[in-house]
Amino acid sequence: MVQVRREIRAPEDLGVDMIGVPEDSPIDLDLRLESVIEGILVTGTAEARLAGECSRCLEPIEEESSFDIQELYFYPGHEAEEDAHRVSNEEEIDLEPVLREAVVLNLPFTPLCRRDCAGLCPDCGVNLNRHPDHDHGERIDPRWAALKDLGPATADADPNRS
Ligand SMILES: [Zn+2]
Ligand SMILES: [Zn+2]
Fold first, then answer.
1. I want to staple 75 with a disulfide (CB 3.0 to 4.6 A). Which of 20, 39, 61, 147 is the partner?
2. Which ligand ends up closest to the CA of 137?
3. 159 in any annotated domain
C-alpha cells in the first residue's frame, strides 16, 4: 500500500454551470493506493477551492470543499467492464477522469452562498440578504393588478366620474 499526497493543478472545465474548480487552482490529493487482486484500489480525498455564483442572489461564492475518491483501476488484461478504469501498461493510473467524476457529480446544481440565502427581490432585484427590510409597501396581488388595468372598461358605470 502506498500513501500519496500531492498537490496538482486543476484541469480546465472541472465543474458545472454555476460552480466549479477554477482552472490551474491547486487541488490537494490525499490518496491511498492499494494493490488488490484485480488491480489498484485508489481511495482518499481531493480538496479543492470552488468558485461560483449563488443561484438565488447571484453573489460570488468561494469555498473549500473536499471530495471523496474511491476507484478500482483494473490491471491490463484483467477482465472488467468496458468503461472500467485501467492501470496502463506503464503501471500508471490516470486520475483525471476519476477526479472529474468525484468533483462534478458532487457539485450542487443550485449552489447557495448560504443555506438561508434570501435571494433577490422579485420586483426590483435588490439583494434581500443585504436589505432584509426591503419592502415595496402594500403588495398588490398580480391578479388584482391586472384587474385594475381593466379600469376604463367599467368607467361608464362609475357615478363619481364626471
Ligand atoms: Zn445567495
Ligand atoms: Zn424590490
1. 39
2. 2
3. no
Neighbours of ion ligand 1 (CB under 5 A): 54, 56-57, 113, 117
CA 29/CA 42 separation, integer angstroms: 11
pLDDT of residue 36: 95
Structure confidence at residue 125 (pLDDT): 95
Domain contains 112: no
- Residue 57 in domain: yes
Tell me which residue of 25, 20, 11 sits closest to 104, measured CA to CA: 20
**Residue 60: inside a domain:** yes
Is the full-model pTM beyond 0.85?
A: no
Sequence-distant (≥ 6) Cβ neighbours of residue 112 within 8 angstroms: 54, 55, 56, 61
